[in-house]
């Protein structure tokens, strides 16, 4: 009989960032350009551009980001002050293998992460490391269009071997790819797949030219690479825990009309479950095979790909969750924005300044839905509110809106735990202000820690605590009991 009252004592509270949005130092100590480093700034109304070469006088947000490369000790100290049990971060692939296919890894890059992990260990903070988080060495995109080619698999596995061996005694939890299912939609072609399908005029716009066949083939290559990495990781250190990471696109049927409910089911299957089925169960589900046939998608597989997928099933399921939307018969209202995926507005929900609809109950729904399917440990590794923060004259940031957002979602996580879901961790996204991946903005802030920098890249980079900093500290101290 289930008598669970709250989060387990071992629950991993923490926060999350990504190297390309946090570190900066894009060309220091042997690092070369990543795909993220070729993206210009933008706003939520003006799209970012992807350039083949860096242009003079153009702002590239990831080049400096919030300079975590030089501030990581200060930042980790602040994380520790909040009481973090875990920190989800990523390793910049082009910091370890600058060209992606180098004969040997870059020692300066490896040493940087040695230093980061040592700093985390000093405060007993568990690293959760994403191996590939929306970036790849740009040289591989330029050489053979990155994940469009099977050559990318060997490059990725060589990179994994280097970091698994180097950090085998300090990292336990690894995530193979960030939001791997984002490759399903055109907006994910470059972001998640490093695909340059159009170089006209030296500028690439990944919404202008797209190939569904190319994206799904690239996704298959990532599935194979992930499975090989899982198998290799377990051979190097049997205590390693490897996870998938899904950009959960949660859609409700717009009505109780059977066709609308079926469309919501279909969207959930293709957008979410197909990728996790491959990574958790080790095979493509039957509904995906029908989808490929209907869309004239032909996945080219090597003879042993199916066996590789079976041998490389992940140990835990992690995902990002920011919003939900509606699918089916178009309801009253306009389309709503989201994290790569979108849909129609839900009249019962409010939205953020960026149009992402706020749905805490949807998080409980997903946790139950996914856990019922896979029965493996789960982590919420991205969740948070992007908002415009105002610094008062006394230096404070009264972000009560962020506290309200997080409180509501943590309450629903607790309910899911009481439902019996094996939820082992929660890392709030952008625990320190970072550059937005989708827009390149700094104005869209998620952090508990304010960073003095604007959309044009100007500012002192000074760190300061928002009111949410002190609130989250209480949440962690009480293991989720004090949400006041």
From TrEMBL:
Lineage: superkingdom: Bacteria
Protein name: Beta-glucosidase
Pfam families for this protein: Glyco_hydro_1
Taxonomic placement: Bacteria, Bacillati, Bacillota, Bacilli, Bacillales
Stretches of the chain forming a coiled coil according to its record: none
Cross-referenced InterPro entries: GH (IPR017853), GH_1_N_CS (IPR033132), Glyco_hydro_1 (IPR001360)
Xref: PANTHER family: 6-PHOSPHO-BETA-GLUCOSIDASE, GLYCOSYL HYDROLASE
Record SUPFAM superfamilies: (Trans)glycosidases
The organism of origin for this protein: Paenibacillus silvae
Family: Belongs to the glycosyl hydrolase 1 family.
